[in-house]
Amino acid sequence: MNPTGLLAQMHEHHCAIAAYTADAEALISAADLDPAIVSNSRWRFVRTLTGYQLFKHQQIFDPVLQRGSQLDADAARQLKAECILISEAFRSYIAKWSTSGIVGREDEYRSDAKAMILRVRRHIVRERRGIEALLSPSLQAA
Length: 142
Hints:
Elements: H1 3-29, H2 35-67, H3 70-100, H4 106-141
Helix pairs in contact: 1-2, 1-4, 2-3, 3-4
């Protein structure tokens, strides 16, 4: 596990998520919401977050759970649990709007989308701190 490389990859994922959320905010702020464009945007968000989730679970959390100290494993387990919780909330959000559509409910959609964007951003900030703390002993040992 190369902590410097992992942090760089995490930063790349975070930049992609930040770019997506900025684009999404602009999209939902538009006077008219095109349902097809909104749907495509949501699925882009799914792909972006899924790629990040696979990376952090496979490259950070699982290796620390298998080979880290008890303290580090506990921290990784907590981070992974928090990730799973927000993933479930995100899946519910996607399911709701994929099945019901936004036509006639644009204001409700905007509100839900803004709330999800904010929740993801807050999660990323907390998680970044946790992952940096988790990897910092490895950086010092390198």
